[in-house]
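Practice set, problem 2.
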Amino acid sequence: MLRTVLSNATRSAARPTLLTRQVARPAFQAFARYESSKANEALKAARKAKDKLQRDWQGPVLTYEQVKPKTISPGADAYLIDVREPDEVMQGSIPSSVNLPLSVLGNSLHLTPQAFKAQHGFEKPKKQQEVVFYCRSGMRSASACDIARRNGYENILNYEGSWLDWTSQEGGGKGSTA
């Protein structure tokens, strides 16, 4: 519209009434949303629950001293999950850990238990099971905790020091290739 107005303005200097009609802008109304005091309580509760899920979340953090006993005597009711990619895991991994790359974590948590086991080679964690995530330095494991929480997992822990901390505490070696 602007191009039309400018070209018409140069051609028709003798017709100012036509120009004003073309330049006239529509009036815009500002809309405001007001919550009614009698709004549906279920709708308000659903909005609060959605906001709570979308808020960034910081899960409980474990240290080397807390993770070490889990590797010495692993329990069937807990998982230690390495979220690094398979080529990174070839460098070594924490004993008793299983690999579930962050790149497939979200989709894998939606699989049926049978499909999950067929794809990854271990049982799918249950929503109430203790799940400890680790990666190389702690960033991806924090993301994995957030993804698991958004998928309904309740007992999620983050080994924040992750692989770098593990190798420094264990003497700088390559670690286990569990």
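Problem 2, part (b): a different protein.
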Amino acid sequence: MFLRTSEEKLKLGIEFFMNTIKLEKSVLIRLPSCLMYSMEERVIPWYKVLQIMKSKRLLKREPSFVHVLNLTEEEFLTKFIVKFSDHTEELLVAYKGHLLDSPSEDES
């Protein structure tokens, strides 16, 4: 499999997976496809949803994030958002929060 992506995207992905998620380098080498997902559209929002679920103790056991990334969007929504109706709004905000961010936020 060829990995075609920008150097900047790879650096961001490697940094996030190794420093934030604490994924071992060997996992990234074995499963480089996880670096191909959009960090802004998929990886970070899905990670935020799982972190909220973990903090609220909604999961009986914590799933492997790499395996979660392999779910389709529909599977993710069903398994991690729709299923938890009491927390759906908060989880959806985490899931789609990047769309709510204003591009002019950086201006101070």
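Answer key, part (b): Confidence is low (pLDDT under 50) at residues 102-108. The longest helix spans residues 39-55.
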